[in-house]
Design a protein that fits this description.
Number of strands: 10
Strand content: 15-25%
Order of helices and strands: HEHEHEHHEHEHHEEHEHEE
Radius of gyration: 19 Å
Number of domains: 1
Helix content: 25-40%
CATH class: Alpha Beta
Protein backbone atom coordinates (compact mmCIF):
# COMPACT_ATOMS: atom_id res chain seq x y z
CA UNK A 1 0.00 0.00 0.00
CA UNK A 2 1.74 3.20 -1.24
CA UNK A 3 -0.77 5.68 0.20
CA UNK A 4 0.90 7.55 3.07
CA UNK A 5 4.11 5.52 2.87
CA UNK A 6 7.22 7.10 4.41
CA UNK A 7 10.87 6.07 4.39
CA UNK A 8 11.73 8.06 7.51
CA UNK A 9 9.46 7.55 10.52
CA UNK A 10 11.51 9.60 12.98
CA UNK A 11 9.28 12.68 12.89
CA UNK A 12 5.90 10.94 12.92
CA UNK A 13 3.55 11.34 15.86
CA UNK A 14 1.87 7.93 15.94
CA UNK A 15 -0.41 8.71 18.87
CA UNK A 16 -4.08 8.19 18.11
CA UNK A 17 -6.42 11.18 18.28
CA UNK A 18 -9.42 10.92 20.60
CA UNK A 19 -12.67 9.52 19.32
CA UNK A 20 -14.78 12.09 17.51
CA UNK A 21 -17.58 13.55 19.63
CA UNK A 22 -20.16 12.13 17.24
CA UNK A 23 -18.61 8.69 17.77
CA UNK A 24 -18.83 9.08 21.54
CA UNK A 25 -22.48 9.98 21.13
CA UNK A 26 -23.03 6.64 19.36
CA UNK A 27 -21.50 4.82 22.33
CA UNK A 28 -22.62 6.82 25.39
CA UNK A 29 -22.45 4.19 28.12
CA UNK A 30 -21.35 0.67 28.92
CA UNK A 31 -23.92 -1.82 27.68
CA UNK A 32 -22.20 -5.17 27.15
CA UNK A 33 -19.26 -7.41 27.89
CA UNK A 34 -16.21 -6.92 25.68
CA UNK A 35 -16.40 -10.53 24.55
CA UNK A 36 -19.71 -9.79 22.82
CA UNK A 37 -17.93 -7.78 20.13
CA UNK A 38 -16.88 -9.80 17.08
CA UNK A 39 -13.35 -9.07 15.84
CA UNK A 40 -12.65 -10.03 12.23
CA UNK A 41 -8.98 -9.81 11.26
CA UNK A 42 -7.89 -9.94 7.65
CA UNK A 43 -5.35 -8.98 5.01
CA UNK A 44 -5.61 -7.51 1.50
CA UNK A 45 -5.18 -10.91 -0.19
CA UNK A 46 -4.43 -14.57 0.48
CA UNK A 47 -2.04 -15.10 -2.43
CA UNK A 48 1.36 -14.66 -0.74
CA UNK A 49 3.61 -17.65 -1.38
CA UNK A 50 5.80 -16.37 1.45
CA UNK A 51 3.12 -17.57 3.89
CA UNK A 52 3.98 -21.17 3.07
CA UNK A 53 5.71 -22.37 6.21
CA UNK A 54 4.08 -19.61 8.27
CA UNK A 55 0.31 -20.04 8.10
CA UNK A 56 0.17 -22.35 5.10
CA UNK A 57 1.54 -25.89 5.49
CA UNK A 58 4.61 -26.84 3.50
CA UNK A 59 3.67 -27.97 0.02
CA UNK A 60 0.42 -25.99 -0.12
CA UNK A 61 -0.67 -25.27 -3.70
CA UNK A 62 -2.00 -21.85 -4.64
CA UNK A 63 -5.49 -23.26 -5.23
CA UNK A 64 -5.63 -24.15 -1.51
CA UNK A 65 -4.29 -20.84 -0.16
CA UNK A 66 -7.75 -19.48 0.66
CA UNK A 67 -8.76 -22.63 2.53
CA UNK A 68 -5.72 -22.30 4.80
CA UNK A 69 -6.00 -18.51 5.02
CA UNK A 70 -9.50 -18.93 6.44
CA UNK A 71 -8.16 -21.14 9.22
CA UNK A 72 -6.28 -18.14 10.62
CA UNK A 73 -8.19 -15.10 9.37
CA UNK A 74 -11.93 -14.59 9.18
CA UNK A 75 -12.16 -11.69 6.74
CA UNK A 76 -10.46 -10.39 3.62
CA UNK A 77 -10.14 -6.89 2.20
CA UNK A 78 -10.80 -8.12 -1.31
CA UNK A 79 -8.56 -5.80 -3.33
CA UNK A 80 -8.68 -7.93 -6.47
CA UNK A 81 -12.28 -6.82 -7.12
CA UNK A 82 -11.02 -3.27 -7.66
CA UNK A 83 -9.56 -4.48 -10.96
CA UNK A 84 -12.13 -7.03 -12.09
CA UNK A 85 -15.36 -8.65 -10.95
CA UNK A 86 -14.88 -12.38 -10.31
CA UNK A 87 -16.81 -14.87 -12.39
CA UNK A 88 -19.70 -16.73 -10.78
CA UNK A 89 -17.78 -20.00 -10.62
CA UNK A 90 -14.87 -18.22 -8.91
CA UNK A 91 -17.13 -16.76 -6.24
CA UNK A 92 -18.78 -20.12 -5.70
CA UNK A 93 -15.38 -21.72 -5.30
CA UNK A 94 -14.31 -19.08 -2.78
CA UNK A 95 -17.47 -19.50 -0.77
CA UNK A 96 -17.02 -23.24 -0.52
CA UNK A 97 -13.50 -22.87 0.92
CA UNK A 98 -14.36 -20.72 3.94
CA UNK A 99 -16.57 -21.22 7.02
CA UNK A 100 -19.91 -19.46 7.43
CA UNK A 101 -18.36 -16.97 9.85
CA UNK A 102 -15.93 -15.69 7.19
CA UNK A 103 -16.61 -12.31 5.55
CA UNK A 104 -15.47 -11.12 2.11
CA UNK A 105 -15.25 -7.31 1.86
CA UNK A 106 -15.04 -6.46 -1.86
CA UNK A 107 -13.33 -3.26 -2.92
CA UNK A 108 -15.58 -1.40 -5.36
CA UNK A 109 -14.41 -1.42 -8.97
CA UNK A 110 -12.04 1.30 -10.15
CA UNK A 111 -14.37 1.76 -13.10
CA UNK A 112 -16.94 3.11 -10.64
CA UNK A 113 -14.74 4.91 -8.12
CA UNK A 114 -11.83 6.25 -10.16
CA UNK A 115 -12.64 6.26 -13.88
CA UNK A 116 -16.25 7.45 -13.63
CA UNK A 117 -15.72 9.14 -10.25
CA UNK A 118 -19.20 8.03 -9.13
CA UNK A 119 -20.84 9.70 -12.13
CA UNK A 120 -23.73 7.81 -13.80
CA UNK A 121 -22.88 4.54 -12.09
CA UNK A 122 -26.23 3.43 -10.73
CA UNK A 123 -26.57 0.47 -13.09
CA UNK A 124 -22.88 -0.41 -12.72
CA UNK A 125 -23.01 -0.50 -8.92
CA UNK A 126 -26.21 -2.52 -8.94
CA UNK A 127 -24.61 -5.09 -11.24
CA UNK A 128 -21.39 -5.06 -9.23
CA UNK A 129 -23.10 -5.69 -5.90
CA UNK A 130 -25.45 -8.33 -7.31
CA UNK A 131 -22.50 -10.29 -8.69
CA UNK A 132 -21.47 -11.10 -5.09
CA UNK A 133 -24.85 -12.50 -4.06
CA UNK A 134 -23.37 -15.96 -4.53
CA UNK A 135 -21.38 -15.38 -1.33
CA UNK A 136 -24.61 -15.21 0.67
CA UNK A 137 -24.05 -14.60 4.38
CA UNK A 138 -20.29 -14.59 3.78
CA UNK A 139 -20.54 -11.21 2.03
CA UNK A 140 -19.40 -8.39 4.29
CA UNK A 141 -19.46 -4.65 3.57
CA UNK A 142 -18.40 -3.28 0.22
CA UNK A 143 -15.44 -0.93 0.51
CA UNK A 144 -15.38 2.35 -1.46
CA UNK A 145 -11.92 3.88 -1.65
CA UNK A 146 -12.28 7.41 -2.95
CA UNK A 147 -9.58 8.65 -5.36
CA UNK A 148 -6.79 10.65 -3.68
CA UNK A 149 -7.91 13.77 -5.58
CA UNK A 150 -11.64 13.31 -4.83
CA UNK A 151 -12.21 16.46 -2.78
CA UNK A 152 -15.16 18.02 -1.02
CA UNK A 153 -15.85 19.85 -4.30
CA UNK A 154 -17.33 16.55 -5.50
CA UNK A 155 -19.35 15.93 -2.36
CA UNK A 156 -22.59 15.96 -4.32
CA UNK A 157 -21.46 12.90 -6.31
CA UNK A 158 -20.65 10.96 -3.16
CA UNK A 159 -23.90 12.02 -1.53
CA UNK A 160 -25.90 10.76 -4.52
CA UNK A 161 -23.91 7.51 -4.56
CA UNK A 162 -24.58 6.84 -0.88
CA UNK A 163 -28.23 7.82 -1.18
CA UNK A 164 -28.82 5.45 -4.13
CA UNK A 165 -26.57 2.60 -3.01
CA UNK A 166 -28.39 -0.71 -3.62
CA UNK A 167 -30.58 -1.80 -0.74
CA UNK A 168 -29.60 -4.87 1.20
CA UNK A 169 -25.84 -4.30 0.98
CA UNK A 170 -23.40 -2.72 3.43
CA UNK A 171 -21.01 0.06 2.44
CA UNK A 172 -17.86 1.51 4.01
CA UNK A 173 -16.25 4.69 2.64
CA UNK A 174 -12.59 5.69 2.92
CA UNK A 175 -11.85 9.42 2.53
CA UNK A 176 -8.39 10.42 1.32
CA UNK A 177 -8.24 13.98 0.01
CA UNK A 178 -7.03 16.51 2.57
CA UNK A 179 -10.11 18.71 2.12
CA UNK A 180 -12.30 16.20 3.95
CA UNK A 181 -10.22 16.78 7.07
CA UNK A 182 -9.98 20.56 6.83
CA UNK A 183 -13.58 21.26 5.83
CA UNK A 184 -15.19 19.84 8.94
CA UNK A 185 -18.70 20.80 7.88
CA UNK A 186 -18.46 18.84 4.62
CA UNK A 187 -17.07 15.79 6.38
CA UNK A 188 -19.68 15.95 9.14
CA UNK A 189 -22.47 16.20 6.58
CA UNK A 190 -21.23 13.11 4.77
CA UNK A 191 -20.68 11.18 7.99
CA UNK A 192 -24.20 12.07 9.12
CA UNK A 193 -25.59 10.75 5.85
CA UNK A 194 -23.68 7.49 6.29
CA UNK A 195 -25.03 7.25 9.83
CA UNK A 196 -28.57 7.88 8.62
CA UNK A 197 -28.16 5.05 6.09
CA UNK A 198 -26.54 2.72 8.67
CA UNK A 199 -23.37 2.65 6.56
CA UNK A 200 -19.75 2.84 7.67
CA UNK A 201 -16.70 5.02 7.47
CA UNK A 202 -13.34 3.37 6.96
CA UNK A 203 -10.46 4.62 9.10
CA UNK A 204 -6.87 4.34 7.87
CA UNK A 205 -3.83 4.36 10.15
CA UNK A 206 -0.81 5.11 7.98
CA UNK A 207 2.47 6.86 8.73
CA UNK A 208 2.40 9.66 6.15
CA UNK A 209 -1.23 10.77 6.50
CA UNK A 210 -2.20 11.15 10.13
CA UNK A 211 -5.15 13.35 9.16
CA UNK A 212 -7.09 10.35 7.84
CA UNK A 213 -7.40 9.12 11.43
CA UNK A 214 -10.72 10.91 11.73
CA UNK A 215 -12.03 8.50 14.42
CA UNK A 216 -15.61 8.98 13.23
CA UNK A 217 -17.80 5.89 13.32
CA UNK A 218 -21.28 6.04 11.83
CA UNK A 219 -22.79 2.79 13.13
CA UNK A 220 -21.93 -0.01 15.53
CA UNK A 221 -19.14 -1.32 13.31
CA UNK A 222 -15.51 -0.34 12.87
CA UNK A 223 -13.46 -0.84 9.70
CA UNK A 224 -9.77 -0.13 10.16
CA UNK A 225 -7.02 -0.35 7.54
CA UNK A 226 -3.82 -0.59 9.56
CA UNK A 227 -0.65 0.03 7.52
CA UNK A 228 2.53 -1.15 9.22
CA UNK A 229 6.14 -0.36 8.47
CA UNK A 230 8.05 -3.65 8.10
CA UNK A 231 7.33 -4.63 11.72
CA UNK A 232 8.94 -1.46 13.03
CA UNK A 233 8.59 -1.11 16.81
CA UNK A 234 5.88 1.50 16.28
CA UNK A 235 3.72 -1.12 14.53
CA UNK A 236 3.36 -2.82 17.89
CA UNK A 237 2.79 0.29 19.99
CA UNK A 238 0.13 1.41 17.51
CA UNK A 239 -1.55 -2.00 17.81
CA UNK A 240 -1.57 -1.54 21.59
CA UNK A 241 -3.33 1.81 21.25
CA UNK A 242 -5.96 0.40 18.89
CA UNK A 243 -6.66 -2.52 21.20
CA UNK A 244 -7.46 -0.03 23.98
CA UNK A 245 -9.89 1.83 21.72
CA UNK A 246 -11.57 -1.34 20.48
CA UNK A 247 -11.89 -2.59 24.06
CA UNK A 248 -13.58 0.67 25.08
CA UNK A 249 -15.96 0.60 22.11
CA UNK A 250 -16.72 -3.08 22.69
CA UNK A 251 -17.96 -2.33 26.20
CA UNK A 252 -20.09 0.49 24.85
CA UNK A 253 -21.91 -1.46 22.19
CA UNK A 254 -19.55 -2.03 19.26
CA UNK A 255 -20.89 -5.07 17.46
CA UNK A 256 -18.12 -5.84 14.99
CA UNK A 257 -14.62 -4.64 14.13
CA UNK A 258 -12.91 -5.35 10.82
CA UNK A 259 -9.15 -5.02 11.32
CA UNK A 260 -7.26 -5.23 8.02
CA UNK A 261 -3.50 -5.61 8.31
CA UNK A 262 -1.27 -4.11 5.62
CA UNK A 263 2.50 -4.23 5.37
CA UNK A 264 4.81 -3.03 2.56
CA UNK A 265 5.59 -6.72 2.11
CA UNK A 266 2.67 -9.11 2.57
CA UNK A 267 5.01 -11.71 4.02
CA UNK A 268 5.08 -9.71 7.27
CA UNK A 269 1.31 -9.61 7.88
CA UNK A 270 1.02 -12.86 9.89
CA UNK A 271 3.57 -11.71 12.48
CA UNK A 272 1.54 -8.60 13.19
CA UNK A 273 -1.63 -10.68 13.24
CA UNK A 274 -0.15 -12.94 15.91
CA UNK A 275 0.64 -9.93 18.08
CA UNK A 276 -2.77 -8.36 17.51
CA UNK A 277 -4.68 -11.48 18.53
CA UNK A 278 -2.56 -11.86 21.66
CA UNK A 279 -3.20 -8.27 22.73
CA UNK A 280 -6.94 -8.48 22.02
CA UNK A 281 -7.32 -11.59 24.13
CA UNK A 282 -5.23 -10.06 26.91
CA UNK A 283 -7.86 -7.35 27.44
CA UNK A 284 -10.82 -9.72 27.32
CA UNK A 285 -11.74 -9.44 23.64
CA UNK A 286 -12.12 -13.18 23.26
CA UNK A 287 -14.44 -13.24 20.24
CA UNK A 288 -11.50 -13.42 17.84
CA UNK A 289 -10.03 -16.36 15.96
CA UNK A 290 -6.71 -17.84 17.04
CA UNK A 291 -4.16 -17.32 14.29
CA UNK A 292 -2.29 -20.43 13.20
CA UNK A 293 1.40 -19.79 12.94
CA UNK A 294 4.35 -22.08 12.36
CA UNK A 295 7.15 -21.88 14.87
CA UNK A 296 10.16 -24.08 14.37
CA UNK A 297 8.34 -25.94 11.62
CA UNK A 298 5.38 -26.89 13.82
CA UNK A 299 2.02 -25.25 13.28
CA UNK A 300 0.01 -24.39 16.35
CA UNK A 301 -2.47 -21.86 17.64
CA UNK A 302 -1.32 -18.95 19.73
CA UNK A 303 -2.45 -20.49 22.99
Amino acid sequence: MKFGKLKDLSGVDFSLPPLAEATKNLFPEKVQQKKDCQILIGCPSWSSKDWIGKIYPQGTKSKDFLKHYAKSFDSIELNTTYYRTPKAETLQNWSEKVPNSFRFCPKISQQISHYRRLNNVRLLIEEFCAAFDLLGEKLGPFFLQLPPNFSTNEANKLEAFIDKFPLGYQLAVEFRHESWFTDHSAFDNMANLLQEKDMMTCISDVAGRRDVLHQRLTNKQLMLRFVGNHLHETDYTRINDWVKIIAYLAEHGLERAYFFIHQPEETECPELGVYLVKQLKAVGLSNVKNLLYKTGGVQSTLF
